[in-house]
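Provenance and format

Records in this collection were gathered into a single text stream. Each protein contributes a sequence line and a token line. The two records reproduced below are adjacent in the stream.
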Amino acid sequence: MKYPLYRYWRAVVMTRTCGLIALLTMLVLQTQAQVPAWKTYYDSAQAFWAEDWPKTVLLLKQAEKFAANDLGIYDPNYLTIANDLGLACWRTRAYGEAEKILKETLATKRQVYAPSDPEIFRSVSNLAGLYAERGDHVPAKQLYRQIISAPAAEQDVYWKAVKNMMRLYETHDDLDSALQLVDKLDAMTAAGKDPAQTYETRLARGRINRKLRKYDDARTILERMIGELQQQREPLLSSLHVQALQEAGLLYLSTGSFNQAEKNILQGFRLIKTLQLTDAGLQTEVLNNLASVYEKLNIYDKATVYYQEALDL
């Protein structure tokens, strides 16, 4: 009997309590309906995805072991399990183990799928993301180029590759190359079907223009974006609103308008609290930048409070 798995590029998230219930339910179902052990362990792992990474890794290792015996390493379900195991190991910062698993999975997929199959590009993207986070930017760029140069790549994978390559160029202060990739993103979002991608592209252009000291161009983009996102309450668009406020604040900080910088970044900080946004990285950035503003304003007690709050995160 076939048990096709969802090929999670990003798996669904459940609470830890729901995860325990799901795990118990799966164990009961296995006994009653003779569900294969590999599927029970895999489904249980998905219940803990993004909630408890070490638990996810343990469950996926069991799923991988049973699937290797029952299905073989060339079976699409086995490859899905192995891919998720690599991603979960990455999330626990076991970079060496994650790299080994993701490279082996990609190599096996190349034997199973056609060169233009979306599964190949997803695996290439995952491995590139691991290298980028680990600081291995040369192999990350090489892999992202494979996707960008392939017209057959799915739009979501292509979009992610272009965006991440752009950020790598920014990291190395190759801002002109980064801006060229923003033009690619602009062309992809011209139809305006995904507002989040449209605003991400605008934010990137505003941020890079700020870094290039094209302050008027950056201000025009960011202020328009802030105005359009003021009434948005969808989490991703709200996050982009906060990021735009922060970028505008950094722009004002760069041009010496410290009071305006405080106003924008403080508004972003309050939005995070009001909308209960859970992006710890974004919270840390906003807190550090808010502390920097108060340091410039010589209000050291407030600066210390926000630096400490950022440190606690």
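Adjacent record:
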Amino acid sequence: MLINNDSRRLVAKKYYSGFDQAHDTYNALTAASDGKVYYVLSSESIDVGGKMFVYDPATDQIEFLADLTEICEEKKKSIPQGKSHVGFEESNGKLYFATHIGYYELIDGMERLPELLPDGYAPYPGGYLLSYDLNDGSFQKLAIVPDGEGVLTMTMDKAMNQLYCITWPNGNFIHYDLKEGKLENYGPISARGEAGTPGKDFRVLCRSMFVDPNTGRVYFSTAEGNIFAYCPTKKSIKPLDEISMRLDYFGGYLTNQPGTMGYNWRKIFWYAPEEVAYGIHGNSGYLFRFDPQKPSIEIVDRITSLPSKKSGMYDQFSYGYLGFQLCPDHETIYYLTGGPIYSEGKRVEGEKTIAKGGARGLENLHLITYHIPNQKYQDHGPIFYADGSRPTYVNSIAVGKDRCVYTLARFDHHNKMIQDLIKITDPLH
């Protein structure tokens, strides 16, 4: 079922958390069971770490919780914990998350771990696995990932109290047992990951994993489109030889080059009513259904914006967007994606390619909903601020108990571009 609300505009309310160095955030936003919205604002500074905040819809107030570097209690002056790149996982009254590097060195046009450090600075120590207690507000350091890697991707088996991660830039697969306090490193999952040389052993890394609660297996994709399963009982990682993400609908990619997510899924989650996973291939905007038991992958629908469908174009952000999740009704997908801008009836085109991945040009931000049982797609139209400007670099989403949609987006604050929390009234309620 197709519903067109293309003429409708949604208005986003801006919030300022008090962090004027806030840079682009990926995933690190959640609406918790206490009704509050927790998020991390990133930093790209060599001296300033990322910061965690909480917004309370009941009071319409924001509270600063902690600096990521200070939570990790690092003893010497090193590259700080600049961001969290993972979604929060809530279990037994705690939020589990991880830290990542935010300060990079641009080498051959690509963001790399810094090699030339200023005097007095130690290298990045590595990302931490952390927890935050929703009851008493305390943080706990759980573990640090080895080899000075950041944590790029994380998921949790909540029934078995297990955390799973992919690190950056080499792409090591990490298993952390919360019950035993034991960390195991299974090494790189895709050539040399994003530490590799373009044209040779470079592979863009998967940004989203899921756990099949029936088996405990963890699934992730690779740039070539292969799907792997980690079995925690056998301690083994094996490919699913019967299926892959190399589908014509997703497009064609040079998988040893930066600039796109390749055949990786962009975001994926487990859908309990059907005992399958639903995922989005970011660049093409196709929603798919992955049944790990058969195994099989089926295309469901293209759920990018209606203007994108009509124009036949991909989003301007070549990786595709991460603002994709199941909302609190456990039936409806909420997706923040791009839509082309038209000027005098002509589509505004961007750059043809972006070497390191990024926005090829300006586009509108659209809110899409897709009700899985009824197969109902709805584009609720573009989102604007009250002053008419557009939210940009949006890669997170949360739907609160207050029936508002939250994300982190760029906007101008006192003549300085920052990224911070914004809120949109849920158009379905």
